[in-house]
Amino acid sequence: TSAEHALADVMRPCRASNKQSRSAMQINVIQTSDADPFKFDVRVHGDGGQTQHHVTMGRNKWRELSGEKHAPARCVEAAFRFLLDREGKESILSTFDITIISRYFPEFENELPKYLERG
Questions:
Q1: What is the C-alpha to C-alpha distance for residues 59 and 56, in angstroms, rounded to an integer?
Q2: Cα separation, 117 vs 42, whole angstroms
Q3: Is the previous residue joined to 13 through a cis bond, with omega within 30 degrees of 0?
Q4: CA-CA distances (angstroms) from residue 52 to 2, 15, 26, 55, 106?
Q5: Residue 83: count of CB within 10 angstroms of its CB
C-alpha cells in the first residue's frame, strides 16, 4: 500500500553541546527505501549552514537498537542527536551505515535509548 511506502519525515530541534556549536540544530530525516537495508537522506540545519548525509540501517540492526518501539527514521534522528552532542555537523560522514557509529563512539548503543526516549 502507499502507506507502507510513505516517506518518514522527522524534524526535531537539537542542542549541540560541543564547544564550537551550541546553537539549535534541526534534523530532517527522510526514509527513501523500505528495502533491507533501510536508506535515509538526512539534513542537519543550523549555525548558518546545512549538511546532507546518506545513511543506511539494516532491518536487524533497527530491531536491535529500537526493540521495534520506534520507527527506523526515529532511530536515525536519535543517532544524529547523539552524534551532534559529540561533534559538529560538518564532522559527520556524508555517507555511512549506522553500525559505523560504534566504531567511533563505543558508548553509542548503550546511550541511544536515552536519545530515543527524548521527544
A1: 10
A2: 20
A3: no
A4: 26, 18, 12, 10, 24
A5: 24
Please, are residues 74 and 116 in contact by the beta-carbon 8 Å criterion? yes
Q: What is the pLDDT of residues 47-73, one digit of tens each?
A: 889 999 999 999 999 999 999 999 999
Query: For residue 67, what are the CA distances in angstroms to 13, 96, 116?
Result: 24, 22, 11
Give the pTM.
0.81
Which set of grid coordinates corresponds to residue 1? 500500500
Average pLDDT over residues 18-27: 61
What cell does 101 get? Answer: 557509529
Question: Which 3-state string (H, E, C) describes the chain?
Answer: CCCCCCCCEEEEEEECCCCCCCCEEEEEEEEEECCCCEEEEEEEEECCEEEEEEEEECHHHHHHHHCCCCCHHHHHHHHHHHHHCCCCHHHCCCEEEHHHHHHHCCCHHHHHHHHHHCC
C-alpha cell at 38: 533501510
Chain segment 24-41, per-residue pLDDT in tens: 799 999 999 999 999 999
